[in-house]
Records
---
Amino acid sequence: MASTIIQFKNVTKQYGQDPVVLDNVSFEIEKGKFYTLLGPSGCGKTTILRLIAGFTEPTSGEIFFNGKKVNDIPANKRQVNTVFQDYALFPHLNVYENVAFGLRIKKMKKSEIDKKVKEALSFVNLNGYEDRDIQDMSGGQKQRVAIARAIVNEPEVILLDEPLSALDLKLRYQMQYELRELQRRLGITFIFVTHDQEEALAMSDEIFVINKGKIQQSGTPNDIYDEPINRFVADFIGESNIIQGTMIEDYVVEFAGKRFACVDKGMERNEPIEVVLRPEDLEITSPDQGLIQIKVISQLFRGVHYEILGVDEQGNEWMVHSTKKAQVGMEIGLRFEPEAIHVMRFNESEEEFDKRLESYTEDESDGK
Ligand SMILES: Nc1ncnc2c1ncn2[C@@H]1O[C@H](COP(=O)(O)OP(=O)(O)O)[C@@H](O)[C@H]1O
Ligand SMILES: [Mg+2]
């Protein structure tokens, strides 16, 4: 078992009489992994980082660091460093002094500081930039200085608050790669914040999807992409078709006016549900070969695939990603495998969802 480094137990944060910012949040962070907090602006991501760093205290609940409660431990006594979105570098200091700053405050020996600063700069590929003014560094280079300044302190955890959002797309991809590599080499726990779902999927060992101060779902990128537990997650992560339907019985679901075999079970008979079908899981066929028929209302070429939008007889909209071309105005058929249908219950919590999934695997092992 990997060991837990940070734990939140029923943490709530509220400023004055304002609406609750974090609502009874519980989670565990394991040592040495890359975590991402993903969610729309204002959902509480930065607040979680500030609570971990000790810049603010929870209104209620407990925060543990290596098993010890740290609610009252000030920021400078925690083994945590933060990389801020705007880098927060000292503009009047050169690269070397920016990175050395924290070590000087700790009154470390000059020779020791020199060794550590050079090591940190080499980690972020900035050897030879020691004497440069911060103003003369590009956005990507400033980002690297900010990271060097965090790792030079050898913290147990590095918090990164949307560190890439100011960079242009190409540099952003490159820095995603570098950050991930850096985390692997250092073996330090990274907690990274973004509102960009692609970035989260590409970089993380574990993702926490957050909305309105609550963790909606946590898991590996694959778990979350393949088995979103509710409409918010399905909608926020990747593109989805979300269709209203009814769970007729175990393994039989009805939507778009038809019944289909599916792999889900454990709901009530005739329970109203929503199904998710990913656009890339739909195959285009002739109308009579299709399980569902749609009329194509628009088509865009996206480089690797066509993005086809259509509507079925019941008025549901369908997005399809296909290497085959369709024609606007034409009727086409759609085929999909039972495994492509993801059934979601209304208001199912992550805990209840996990329990239901566990019962599937138990059944499977029973059968063997
Ligand atoms: N110091 C503060 N005082 C009052 N409200 C705050 C304060 N800091 C954050 N908030 C509110 O808490 C909510 C979550 O903010 P934040 O954690 O910064 O979201 P995110 O980082 O996900 O965009 C927002 O509605 C924000 O206005
Ligand atoms: Mg924020």
Note: The chain has nine helices and 20 strands.
---
Amino acid sequence: MKIDPAKILRFAKHRVRTAANEMRKTPLHGAIKIVRPYTMGESNALNNLHRLGRHIAQSGLPGDHVECGTFHGGSAAAAAIGFGPGTRTMWLYDSFEGLPEPKAIDGPDAAQWTGGCVGAIEKLNDILTKINVPENRICIRKGWFQDTFVEPLPEKIALLHIDADWYDSVALALDTFYDRVVEGGVIVLDDFGYWEGCREAFYDFCIKKKIKPLIERCGVAQAWWIKGKDNNR
Ligand SMILES: C[S@@+](CC[C@H](N)C(=O)[O-])C[C@H]1O[C@@H](n2cnc3c(N)ncnc32)[C@H](O)[C@@H]1O
């Protein structure tokens, strides 16, 4: 039998689109149930990522999905389920060796977390397979941010999720990726209300870039904003 490669490609694309549409319909609690074993995130923060993913999908914004600090991949998957898995390239950055040493600016409680939160790349791959993200949509960058935030980098970003706790990590993520976020794209800081260093990095970045983001909050820790949005009228 002669196989028509164009037909196979059309069929594969159809399968990805169908899986993506089904996943996007997954209700919030369903998404949380799937990702829960792969994340240390709080349910309200995961729900919000899922919701923001949906919002971006519905507004048809261009751009990829970037997460700095993936651990086992649960929060990345929560947002991807909102997008519809496979509809956007996922750039996933983590040392998979745990947290680096903090600095004084990260506060007195931070030091005890050095080397904590060790993510497993196998678990990350496992959850991405479970939610049907095709391999050609996944870019996992293993290593310290200063070594992995190098070309090739995503050209356009629709969702930038920074969940990396310390001042230096958050500052480097904002410096590297913020200009690539499209107007209307979303930036999420997971540790804004939890770790002093994350908040300091955000304010220092705002001063440097002369921006005044309209910050929204979710729960005690997460903060997020829409690039270019000036008000909630
Ligand atoms: C709180 S965990 C992320 C939690 C995750 N998003 C989830 O769904 O549970 C923080 C992660 O950031 C990573 N990380 C922090 N700073 C980093 C750096 N400079 N380079 C590489 N990885 C870093 C750590 O390895 C750790 O896995």
Note: Residues 39-41, 69-71, 74-75, 94-95, 98-100, 117, 119, 144-145, 163-166, 169 surround S-adenosylmethionine (CB under 6 Å).
